[in-house]
Backbone:
């Protein structure tokens, strides 16, 4: 089981991206998820202030209805 | 200059893909083209589902009418022909000629008046043979001033093929009625009887006040009723009966255009309405009606799975076969081999 | 010109937004009508068609199927001819211009739009969204204070203490004072050969580390010169960027000015952080310099970056910061400890800084400088602060070692009286902290309000002087956990507003984390928390309990006793050595840097 799979539900990334406008910021935010090997991420919060964008990205590792590996005895033994 | 619009029964039914296909095909057939949109189309990701969307690639010499913010974000190069007096939420609409091809987002006039004026400007300032207008979401109204329409539908409207086919049959039926022989010049509800003609104060049949006003003016001599404005679902399902009972015999209902019927909330109300008028031999006609040239289908739909949207598909062959069987209008899947025949219909 | 506007709440649950907008439009003299939220789309269209409205405002959140519903509604308005007369506008949290265009509206306002923007649109004025700069005026929170003492006993004691002290420091010299004089000449002279000679005189009074750094560019570990390319990159970045929708944190005249620390080590990173913080509403910054700067005789020159905590306060670095901060932003330079205090104040003054930090007591009791050296240097520093018209704040950081609040406050008051006598403008800086003495003695067991409030009440009872709690507020109540840290800062900020203090220094949510530099995310998060705190408290008040009154009286009594003890000594430095203002049981130790250097 990977460290990511140990996460109960989600991982949040709180950060600040330098970008020229809101569109570029959003694009970079989604790209960041890919670059960090998290795949598709949701932008939970974004605010562009002129210099850059304050961001909170979320990657859901487990959602309701998924099978939770951390509850499986075989995975945890 | 001729005008053709691509309208969708819902988002993701393939409007932009169809438009793109038409643009490329018509250019290669030597037509001088212009294009615009009544909404916002050509963006990378769907505003609501966040899935990637097809973007519009525009060739050299194509004329487009789009908002100034959309011109800031393109790698295509262009020269400005005219800055129109119209604006959208994305800024002033500019008429430009593409000088270097590229991907571009179209956001053009969003009202019927605005579209009408843009058409006049294009006619005046360019030598275009045809204007192609891209729809937006399931929006209709401005499109009904155009000469021809192509309707796109598909799994995004409803993932059940049977329901889709039934719905398109109803839409086709709505388009099948003819132009009114009587020239109604007023924009209010008008009643033509054998002995007189009356023009009412309003143009809608939406609430009880409207109906009572109409009922007061009806008698058994009525031959035509012209309704230019909005009609409620009650009219389609119940109140038509009230009107018929006063007149007591078949008459003609004249609408401004098919859009009034298409704007009902649910097409099953249309079904009830069409059954009623058939039963009672009530005639339907329009003051104005674009020609329904073709229907295109898209088996794709965004399926909601665990709070996100994922791409899914219906069986495209069954969809095309069932749709073609049920309709008189030609049906195409533009990715299939016989799709070039669509150009013969334009 | 008055406009006719129809307000349409298409959202049956969330119609508060549109009601607020309607009120705002009514106040501007426009004629508004509000439909009830339970009408069918056809009924709404009929109402819209009935009158000639200039604008139809629709409010709606998004959800499943809502886009299609709105598109149909837009079609109905168009079909009914309403769009020939009226512009249709949509407002809602997720609305963007692109979404508004897709739905067919003439304009869209989303969560980042303001009521002012909407009103400007309706009135036909385009608000310049990209406003140039902050459009802010520099805050002056000193004027209005006459430094009148209201407690005669304390005033007399302070008078006696400071008279003795000034006499004691008179005619005494130190390398720090000498270097400040030489530095002043160096800066004022254009003659290169004269400059060279002055530099030789200067270096003769410096430690080797400083001489090597300045002459040979051989710096201590972690220090390097900032390159011209880095400086020009910074200029390029700042020239092309403007703050967007700058935030104003204070909305009541009671609300204090807000300061943040800078001191990442790199002046470029500091400036970039500062520009973002300015946009979020920060009024001023304090430069935190490296602790080793205090230990060496002499200051490094040039644009310097430092890989560890603290940004070097070289003349060029201070000028760089001053130049790149907004004109309305206040800049404070630390000069309360170490062997370079007069020189630092001089450079700060010449570089255009607005304030300096000086505390002769704390600087020697908690910050390692020899009391006699700091006494002499400190008096000179205060005179220079007066000369360059820079008010000076007096940080009561002694409390952080364990010194009781009353001794710390006594020390602050001594500095205040000194400042007054030397023609300067002192600012009291009591701490809002959970200091060791407070923890041990349980003053904040019940709540954090009473004791903090008591400090302010006590000081106000004694003297009419500006008060600027720090350093930062909520010190030692914050953990590394982001939300807790932001909350701690925001509650203390609300308390500061309630107590109507003049300014506060606030931390980022990284405050408790000591193993790395502070990041911009943490700064922004705490600023937003403070912004919300002020929104919450407005001009309302916290109500301290009766315990606050007891604490206030007790503080005043003990301050008086402390000052009596100090007055009985030969002079202030003797009092410091003898522990009157903090002894080793309190965790305070007279410093050693600069011992024996005063002539």
Residues:
């Amino acid at each position: 089981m990977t460290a990511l799979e140990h996460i109960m539900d989600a991982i949040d990334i709180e950060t600040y991206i330098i970008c020229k406008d809101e569109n570029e910021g959003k694009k970079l935010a989604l790209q960041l998820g890919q670059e960090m090997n998290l795949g598709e991420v949701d932008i939970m919060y974004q605010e562009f202030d002129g210099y850059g964008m304050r961001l909170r990205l979320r990657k859901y590792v487990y959602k309701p209805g998924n099978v939770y590996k951390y509850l499986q005895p075989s995975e945890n033994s | 200059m001729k005008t053709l619009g691509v309208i969708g029964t819902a988002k993701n039914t393939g409007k932009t893909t169809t438009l793109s296909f038409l643009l490329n095909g018509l250019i290669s057939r030597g037509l001088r083209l212009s294009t615009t949109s009544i909404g916002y189309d050509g963006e990378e990701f769907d505003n609501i589902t966040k899935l990637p969307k097809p973007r519009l690639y525009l060739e050299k010499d194509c004329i487009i009418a789009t908002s100034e913010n959309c011109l800031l974000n393109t790698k295509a190069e262009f020269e400005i022909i005219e800055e129109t007096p119209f604006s959208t939420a994305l800024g002033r609409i500019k008429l430009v000629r593409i000088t270097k091809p590229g991907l571009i987002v179209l956001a053009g006039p969003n009202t019927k008046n605005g579209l009408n004026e843009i058409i006049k400007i294009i006619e005046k300032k360019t030598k275009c043979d045809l204007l192609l207008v891209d729809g937006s979401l399931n929006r209709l109204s401005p499109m009904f001033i155009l000469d021809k329409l192509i309707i796109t539908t598909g799994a995004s409207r409803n993932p059940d093929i049977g329901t889709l086919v039934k719905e398109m049959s109803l839409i086709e039926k709505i388009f099948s009625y003819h132009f009114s022989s009587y020239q109604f010049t007023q924009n209010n509800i008008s009643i033509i009887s054998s002995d007189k003609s009356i023009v009412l104060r309003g143009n809608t049949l939406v609430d009880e006040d409207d109906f009572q006003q109409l009922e007061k003016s009806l008698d058994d001599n009525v031959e035509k009723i012209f309704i230019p404005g909005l009609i409620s679902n009650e009219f389609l399902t119940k109140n038509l009966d009230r009107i018929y009972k006063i007149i007591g015999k078949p008459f003609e209902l004249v609408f401004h255009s098919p859009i009034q019927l298409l704007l009902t909330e649910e097409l099953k109300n249309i079904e009830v309405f069409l059954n009623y008028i058939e039963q009672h031999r009530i005639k339907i006609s329009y003051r104005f009606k674009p020609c329904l040239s073709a229907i295109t289908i898209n088996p794709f739909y965004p399926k909601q799975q665990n709070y996100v949207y994922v791409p899914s598909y219906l069986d495209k062959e069954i969809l095309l076969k069932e749709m073609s069987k049920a309709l008189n209008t030609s049906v195409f899947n533009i990715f299939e081999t016989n799709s070039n025949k669509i150009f013969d219909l334009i | 010109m008055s406009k006719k506007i129809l307000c349409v709440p298409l959202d049956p649950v969330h119609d508060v937004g549109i009601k607020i907008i309607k009120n705002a439009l009514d106040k501007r003299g426009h004629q508004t009508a509000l439909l009830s939220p339970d009408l069918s789309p056809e009924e709404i269209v009929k109402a819209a068609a009935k009158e000639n409205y200039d604008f139809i405002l629709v409010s709606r959140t998004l959800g499943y199927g809502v886009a299609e519903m709105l598109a149909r509604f837009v079609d109905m308005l168009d079909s009914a001819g309403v769009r020939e007369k009226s512009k249709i506008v949509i407002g809602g949290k997720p609305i963007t211009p692109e979404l508004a265009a897709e739905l067919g509206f003439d304009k869209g306002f989303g969560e980042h739009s303001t009521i002012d923007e909407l009103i400007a649109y309706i009135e036909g004025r385009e608000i310049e969204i990209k406003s140039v700069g902050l459009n802010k005026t520099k805050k002056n929170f000193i004027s209005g204070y006459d430094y009148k003492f209201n407690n005669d006993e304390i005033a007399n004691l302070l008078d006696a203490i400071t008279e003795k002290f000034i006499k004691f420091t008179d005619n005494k010299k130190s390398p720090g004072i000498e270097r400040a004089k030489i530095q002043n000449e160096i800066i004022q002279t254009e003659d290169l050969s004269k400059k060279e000679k002055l530099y030789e005189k200067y270096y003769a009074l410096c430690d080797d580390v400083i001489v090597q750094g300045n002459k040979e560019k051989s710096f201590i570990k972690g220090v390097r010169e900032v390159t011209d390319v880095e400086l020009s990159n910074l200029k390029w970045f700042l020239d092309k960027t403007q703050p967007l929708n700058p935030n104003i944190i204070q909305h009541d005249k009671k609300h204090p000015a807000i300061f943040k620390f800078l001191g990442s080590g790199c002046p470029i990173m500091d400036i970039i952080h500062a520009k973002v913080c300015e946009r979020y509403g920060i009024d001023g910054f304090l430069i935190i310099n490296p602790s080793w700067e205090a230990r060496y005789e002499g200051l490094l020159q040039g644009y310097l970056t430092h890989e560890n905590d603290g940004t070097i306060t070289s003349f060029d670095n201070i000028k760089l910061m001053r130049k790149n901060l907004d004109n309305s932003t206040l800049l404070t330079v630390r000069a309360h400890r170490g062997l370079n205090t007069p020189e630092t104040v001089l450079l700060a003054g010449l570089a255009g800084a607005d304030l300096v930090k000086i505390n002769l007591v704390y600087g020697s009791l908690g910050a390692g400088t020899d009391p006699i050296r700091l006494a002499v240097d400190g008096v000179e520093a205060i005179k220079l602060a007066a000369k360059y018209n820079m008010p000076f704040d007096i940080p009561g950081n002694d409390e952080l070692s364990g010194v009781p609040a009353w001794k710390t406050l006594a020390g602050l008051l001594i500095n205040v009286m000194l400042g007054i006598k030397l023609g300067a403008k002192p600012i009291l800086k009591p701490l809002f902290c959970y200091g060791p003495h407070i923890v041990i003695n349980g003053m904040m067991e019940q709540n954090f309000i009473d004791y903090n409030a008591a400090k302010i009440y006590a000081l106000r009872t004694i003297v009419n002087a500006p008060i600027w709690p720090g350093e930062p507020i909520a010190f030692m109540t914050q953990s590394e956990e982001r939300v807790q840290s932001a909350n701690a800062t925001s509650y203390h900020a609300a308390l500061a507003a309630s107590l109507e203090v003049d300014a506060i220094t606030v931390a980022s949510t990284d405050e408790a984390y000591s193993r790395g530099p502070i990041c911009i995310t943490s700064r922004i998060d705490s600023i937003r928390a403070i912004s919300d705190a002020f929104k919450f408290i407005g001009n309302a008040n916290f109500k301290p309990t009766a315990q606050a009154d007891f604490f206030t009286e007790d503080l005043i009594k003990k301050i008086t006793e402390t000052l009596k003890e100090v007055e009985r000594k030969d002079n202030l430095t003797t009092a410091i050595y003898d522990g009157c203002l903090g002894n080793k049981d309190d965790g305070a130790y007279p410093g050693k840097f600069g011992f024996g250097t005063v002539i």
Observations:
- The radius of gyration of chain A is 15 Å.
- Residues 70 and 76 of chain A are 7 Å apart (CA to CA).
- Chain A is about 25% helix and 30% strand.
- Chain A has one domain: 4-62.
